[in-house]
Amino acid sequence: MSESAIDPGLLARAEAWRQADPDSATATALGGLIESARAGDAAALTELQDAFAGPLTFGTAGLRAALGAGPARMNRVVVSQAAAGFAQWLKAHGHAGGRVLIGFDARYNSDVFARDTAEIMQAAGFEALLTDQPTPTPVVAFGIQQFGCVAGVVVTASHNPPQDNGYKVYLGDGSQIVPPTDAEIAACIAEVAAEPISQVSRDPGYRVIGEELVAAYVQRCGELVPENAPRELSWVYTAMHGVGARVVNRAVHAAGLPAGISVAQQNDPDPAFPTVAFPNPEEPGAIDLALALAEQTGVDVVVANDPDADRCAVAAVMGGSWRMLSGDELGALLGDDFLRRGVQGVYASSVVSSTLLGRMAQQAGQPFVTTLTGFKWIGRVPGLAYGYEEAIGYCTDPARVPDKDGVTALVNILRIVADLRAQGLTIEDRLDEIARTFGLHATAPLSVRVTDLTIISDAMARLRANPPSTLLGSTVTVIDLAEPGPDSHLPPTNAVEITGDRVHVVVRPSGTEPKLKCYLEVRGTPDAAQVDLPGERARIAAELSQLREEMSGVLGLS
From 349, 363, 501, 508, which residue has the greatest number of CB atoms within 10 Å? Predict the structure, then answer.
């Protein structure tokens, strides 16, 4: 391959980017990529084409992509454009001069991107507050209300692979953005991107905050456990190489709960995430070190956070051996606790989560709402008492953090386990009790990670063109959520929902990863669970496996 075979426009755009890039590391790396592509390196050319294929899409999750030079990567140019565009939108909507809180996780360049954002917001006339060190995402979300901010930004890629980073924005109520705000901000970013990055003004006069933010959040965590609540338990904790440990340790102490036994290899922040393939507690093997430590120490429970500590996972002895609870099992456990304590308000879960919480809330006489996927929707439910999503996200203090919060969820879980222990019960006992009351609700994901995104679009098109009429031998109803109809309260979204007497299935592309996701649920009856719970559990598991096979065929994945 000769240089003449390379699009000269691509080379010109890449060279212009290299010269304007304020980051010498990415500029140097881009220069090497350009030279390799010119020399005939096909892989370098492919990488260059991908990096300059187009700007990152600013959506309701903000930005998220691999680090590197170019408009389709996460770098100082893209982040600076995003900060300036967001500042422009805030001023246009009456928030000029307000406070903006900026936090960051411990990933590569997170601190740099956060500092760029603080300088740009300060120069735009806002009072920029920058956290003094890597901080859990929910602590920043809490701080937006605590400090009377008009907006917040967290530089994080949550549980994505090590080479990724992201940019998440909040409004003044502490909630994530939803349409059409995302498109409006994206338009402002595009205006900024049309001008040289050197024209974006900066001011290093931002304010650094630390202890006052963490102390207020920790105090709030301590208030979540009543003074007379049982507190005796033992537990293992893993921060998954993220930023959770520092705040978790203080929050647990403030609540009067015993300190956890930490997985030392995963306790300190490390952007390389050396002990896990993917830094997500849901991924196979991610909590193996925590489970091994639990076996050694004989604790009551294992609790894990993801790297930015907005998600929370739990493992317990189930059926005689340690295993991680599914996101829906933990969602039901927490929901049951809120309902038992008589917490008034609206209960909510996303359309991809189990239908169990809705049944529990109905029996308790509490209103329930199904939302679209994501806490940008759950956190906005008026009068929310508790909300969750199957992807180990739990909103357990919506008045102060209308978002998923892995730290307050952890505190609530420890309180529940201590209370169960005081009664001579375990997590398994409580989940069995819920199953006997409401019937088994078994859920499982069918998730396919792809390198070719057409696999996802083809599968969705196949499902819409030839939807199933039956699943597990029973008639089902298919609803295209892209066109939900006048009776639906859900905004349009690229997903298909399939429901029947015993099944619930939702298929959608992931919003943050190159994955096709299929959420499966099989429901049993309380009568069967009361008579023979082990037998019912085996039967439902077999049906769930069969449902997986049937949906794999429907989607053309088998």
Answer: 349
- Rounded to 10 degrees, the C-alpha dihedral 48/54/57/62 comes to 50
Whether 201 sits among the annotated catalytic residues: the reply is: no
221: number of Cβ within 10 Å: 27
Q: Which residues lie closer than 8 Å to 371 by C-beta, 6 or more apart?
A: 348, 349, 350, 351, 377, 378, 381, 387, 490
Query: Pick from 297, 204, 214, 286: which is nearest to 248 by CA?
Result: 214
pLDDT, tens digit, for every residue of 453-483?
888 999 999 999 999 999 999 999 999 999 8
pLDDT at position 1, please? 47
CA distance 68 to 163: 9
CA dihedral of residues 334, 337, 339, 345 (deg, nearest 10):
-50
In angstroms, how far apart are the furthest CA atoms of the chain?
A: 77
* Residues 144 and 101: beta-carbon distance below 8 Å: yes
Indicate which residue of 80, 158, 175, 354 is catalytic. 158
Residue 297 has which token pair?
């120490």
| CA geometry: angle 72, 75, 77, nearest 5 deg | 90
Q: Determine how β-strand 393-395 pairs with β-strand 384-389.
A: antiparallel
Q: Which residues of the chain have pLDDT under 50?
A: 1
Which tokens go with 116?
Answer: 């760029």
Specify whether the CB–CB gap between 214 and 139 falls below 8 A: yes
Phi-psi category of 192—alpha, beta or left, where left has phi over 0 and alpha has psi -120 to 50? alpha
Q: What is the DSSP letter of 59?
A: B
First to last CA, the chain: 38
